[in-house]
Specification:
A 14-stranded mixed beta sheet has the order 7-6-5-4-3-2-1-14-13-12-11-10-9-8. It contains 2 helices and 14 strands, in the order ββββββββααββββββ. The protein starts with 5 loop residues before the first strand and ends with a strand. By secondary structure, it is mostly beta strands. A hairpin with a 4-residue loop joins β3 and β4. It has one domain. It is globular, with a radius of gyration of 17 Å.
């Protein structure tokens, strides 16, 4: 059986109006690869993301740069569940030195990037569940990469099925972390349309 592949290119405008994010995503039946950029008034970021089956993170490669400094991170998860990180850079202070305990984590979460909320939503079919009238709420341990410093933190998050969105075949998904909660809007592929307080998808950059 040939795997179905879908290619999507998306743009989001940050809630601060100075940030523009773009991602090109290659969606498979149960995995994805993506690359993208984020441009702000103080730094530029580019990333590459690869997942394995069940949309479990395999590698996240991130680079940030600003006036007189640059930084990079290659974050990997092995099939056995072991996470490793390699940092490099110049300027902007000391580089991060070590990872937190991520043994329970399946996913990375790149700070301010709407794309990386997609993996747990797809793994547990929250869009389908919303349209079937089912309920589900699950806790996750995420490898959260803060930007632009690229430090990695252990982040406890919860995703909950809410309501279907008939206009685009998507869904509303509840999101909560240790200090923040909101309702995400997705399209039918589980990709974020609106993340209140973070970014909203736009059709074109103007």
């Amino acid at each position: 059986m040939t795997e179905t592949i879908e290619h999507r290119t998306m743009h989001w405008r940050g809630s601060d109006s100075e940030r523009i994010d773009t991602a090109h995503v290659r969606l498979g039946i149960d995995s994805l690869t993506a690359h993208g950029t984020s441009l702000t008034s103080s730094y530029a970021l580019d990333f590459r993301l690869t997942t394995g089956p069940r949309w479990i993170t395999r590698a996240l490669d991130v680079r940030t740069r600003g006036d007189g400094w640059s930084r990079s991170l290659v974050l990997r998860r092995s099939d056995e569940g072991d996470w490793t990180a390699d940092w490099d850079g110049r300027g902007a202070g000391q580089l991060p030195q070590e990872l937190p305990d991520l043994r329970e984590s399946l996913d990375c979460d790149l700070g301010l990037c709407p794309l990386t909320n997609t993996m747990p939503i797809l793994r547990h079919d929250y869009v389908g569940a919303a349209h079937r009238g089912q309920t589900d709420s699950r806790g996750f341990i995420m490898a959260l990469v803060s930007v632009p410093d690229l430090a990695v933190q252990r982040s406890e998050q919860r995703y909950s099925v809410k309501d279907p969105v008939d206009v685009n075949g998507g869904a509303l998904v509840g999101f909560a972390s240790e200090r923040f909660s909101t309702t995400l809007e997705t399209d039918g592929d589980g990709l974020i349309i609106n993340y209140p307080g973070l970014a909203r998808r736009v059709e074109a950059l103007t």
